[in-house]
Amino acid sequence: MNIAIDLMGGDFAPENVIGGIKSFLSENRFDAKITGIGTQQAIDMAQNELGAFSNSLEWIVATQVIGMQEHPTKALKSKPDSSISTGFKLLAASKADAFISAGNTGAMMVGALYSIRTIPGVSRPGIGAYIPQENGNLALLIDVGLNADCKPENLTQFAILGSLFSKHILNIQEPRVALLNIGEEEGKGNILGQAVYPMLKENQKIHFTGNAEGRDLLKNKADVYVCDGFTGNVLLKFAESFYDIFQSHNISDEYLNKFNFEMYGGVPVLGVNKPVIIGHGISGTTAFNNMLQTAARMIENNFIQTVSDAFL
Amino acid sequence: MNIAIDLMGGDFAPENVIGGIKSFLSENRFDAKITGIGTQQAIDMAQNELGAFSNSLEWIVATQVIGMQEHPTKALKSKPDSSISTGFKLLAASKADAFISAGNTGAMMVGALYSIRTIPGVSRPGIGAYIPQENGNLALLIDVGLNADCKPENLTQFAILGSLFSKHILNIQEPRVALLNIGEEEGKGNILGQAVYPMLKENQKIHFTGNAEGRDLLKNKADVYVCDGFTGNVLLKFAESFYDIFQSHNISDEYLNKFNFEMYGGVPVLGVNKPVIIGHGISGTTAFNNMLQTAARMIENNFIQTVSDAFL
Questions:
Q1: Which of A43, A248, B107, B191 has the greatest number of beta carbons closer than 10 A?
Q2: Same domain, A128 and A238
Q3: Is the predicted pLDDT of residue B28 greater than 80, yes or no?
Q4: SS3 for B198?
């Protein structure tokens, strides 16, 4: 396997990316090759730090970098030799099996949507985020921002994509899928929720358990919570801001500490034909290591094939 | 002024309702009359407890009670002599100036929508909830559940309603209004957000400051955060579930403690022609006192007239 990673992505790049690669390769991942993409300067620094692992590493120079605040579409167009553009080109040309970046989130989303192919049968890819459950489980919330407006069909597909990720990557045997909604019973909620409920109920590819309200999101009511990307994005960022407050107020609690995205690394784009993982801007060494682990697992388990089969 | 209150509403009724009335009247509110609505048994209990304040109290017997889990519309139809139905009848007949209940939330919403009139010019009333800001300010999130699907016009009206409540009841001089959205700049977000942004920007009745993301909700980016009732409801219940966790994990923090709804009592229905306040099921004595204070303030400040003038 060959995992491409953006050396320039994130607020503390390339140091933290390099640190993450080091941790990952130190854990005896002899089977994995990593392709680092970045400026010559970043590659020089990486080569210095990672000399012991040179057999597992490849480098590709990117002369441009997309800044965190740049307009995604414009930046991708005007910077064809940026590290993010290069990463997607490697994926498209099957020269890499996965791509990871903690750079400009919008550019990563646009790149995932338009630079590589969607798995046949998937109308719109979705982005899943981890929601730690109070009982210790790890649930997935999907979509958290790729699709601000959704049709019922999109939510049904997110349910399938999330279930497969939960089962094959998070090792949950029969993932319970809930529809994020207001009100508990069928027939409650907004127009989208009312329309998609019977579709989820009848879908044989998932184990649908009904509606979940905002208050249920942390309570292990499901393994996969399905929603439109607007609601998911607002919720995810709201939860992150709570975690910032826990940190700044010196609150230490085993469960609340799990809202530290570092523990998970980044969020996977599901429904595209190669694993793509989008890291948080402030990703640290642990986060990059975790993203590499997730990508490796997705490749090892042949996750894309599993998804393709489900959408045949 | 005459404030009607449902003695039967809430998980700990009528004890907590009675306790709240006692606290409120003990604070020298000689100008306020309170009409308690409940079963004969509840009224007997209240009269025993509140003997010292008999001059400020009136009682109306309701022979029926709507349970917390009953279907709102069906319950209101089949129980015309319930305490909630009676409260709205008092409002409709102008025999009370405000109505408070911590009973069946859905029945309170349906009652507010269909038993009393909307202020002329207001298409849809909205429900506002308090969101404590990290700097100590108290912001309002509107709508938190009355309107699962919204048109741009609805959001513009929530912005005006929220601004007026923030200014006249929460004493914020020039409330900043933000649109809850994904992405910061104009043109970002879902179809609803993209459509309403220019309308908010041009509206002379509010001080619009742009988009707020999920991460900004606690960060004093605005005094009024406007969103559709689906997103608002999910967010509010999610925040409440965080507070439950703070409690069960024995986390004590001055700021996080403010997510205790008890501090505010209940959420006001804005845009209807009488003050209506919906309490949380587990409201305690403090919550009922606070709801009475808010209702009194809305009546004293002639809040309904202020709203009517704004929508002329």
A1: B107
A2: yes
A3: no
A4: helix
B40 pLDDT higher than 90: yes
Q: A261: pLDDT confidence band, cut at 50, 70 and 90?
A: confident
Select the residue from A147, A154, A242 to test the B interface by mutation, using most B Cβ atoms within 10 A. A242
Whether residues B24 and B135 fall in one domain: no
Instruction: Provide mean pLDDT across the span B71-90.
Output: 97
Do A158 and A174 sit in the same domain of this protein?
yes
The pLDDT score that the predictor gives to residue B31 is: 86
Query: In total, how many domains does chain B have?
Result: 2
A-chain CB neighbours of B249 within 8 Å are: 253, 255-256
Q: A312 to chain B, minimum CA–CA distance in Å?
A: 30
Query: Exposed e or buried b for every residue in A191-208, given b needs 16+ CB within 10 A?
Result: ebbbebbeebeebeebbb
Please give the helix or strand (H or E) that residue A77 lies within, else none. Answer: helix A72-78
Please tell me which of the candidates B230, B244, B251 has its beta carbon nearest to residue A231: B230
Residue B136 covered by a domain: yes
**What are B194's two structure tokens?**
């993209």
Strand B57-61 and strand B98-101: the pairing is unpaired
A59 and A142 co-located in one domain? no
In a domain, B265, yes or no: no
Task: Count how many Cα atoms sit within 13 Å of the Cα of residue A64 in the half-sphere of its side chain.
Answer: 15
Residues A156 and A55 in one domain: no
Confirm if A84 and A111 have CB atoms less than 8 A apart: yes
Interface test mutation site (partner B, options A104, A135, A155, A230, max chain B beta carbons within 10 A): A230
Paired strand residues for A283: none
A190 and B215 within 8 Å at the Cβ level: the answer is no
Q: Is A218 an interface residue toward B (CB < 8 Å)?
A: yes
Complex-level ipTM: 0.94
Residue A179 and residue A99 share a domain? no
Rounded to an integer, what distance in angstroms lies between the CA atom of residue A24 and that of residue A90? 21
pLDDT at B261: 78
Q: Over the stretch A17-29, which tens digit does the pLDDT of each residue have?
A: 999 999 999 997 7
Q: Is B256 on the interface with A (CB under 8 A)?
A: yes
Out of B191, B214, B244, closest to residue A234 by CB:
B214
Q: Out of B236, B244, B253, whose CB is closest to A249?
A: B253
Confidence of residue A105 (pLDDT cuts 50, 70, 90): very high
Residues A118 and A182 grouped into a single domain:
no
For an interface test with B, which of A188, A190, A196, A237 has the most B Cβ atoms less than 10 Å from its Cβ? A190
Nearest chain B residue to A189, by CA: B148
Same domain for B30 and B65, yes or no, is: yes
Residues 145-184 of B with CB under 8 A from A: 145, 148-149, 180, 182
Residue B206 domain-assigned? yes
Q: What is the DSSP string of B107-166?
A: HHHHHHHHTSPBPTT-SS-EEEEEEE-TTS-EEEEE-SSS-SS--HHHHHHHHHHHHHHH
- Is B144 a member of any domain? yes
Place of tokens 């029945």: B107
pTM, rounded to two decimals:
0.95
CATH number at residue A135: 3.40.718.10
User: Which residues, numbered 224 to 253 in chain A, qualify as contacts with chain B under a Cβ-Cβ cut-off of 8 Å?
Assistant: 227-231, 233-242, 244-245, 249, 251, 253
* pLDDT tens sequence across B154-195: 999 999 999 999 999 999 999 999 999 998 889 999 999 999
Q: How many CB atoms lie within 10 A of CB B265?
A: 27
Q: Which structural domain range is residue B48 located in?
A: 1-122+271-312
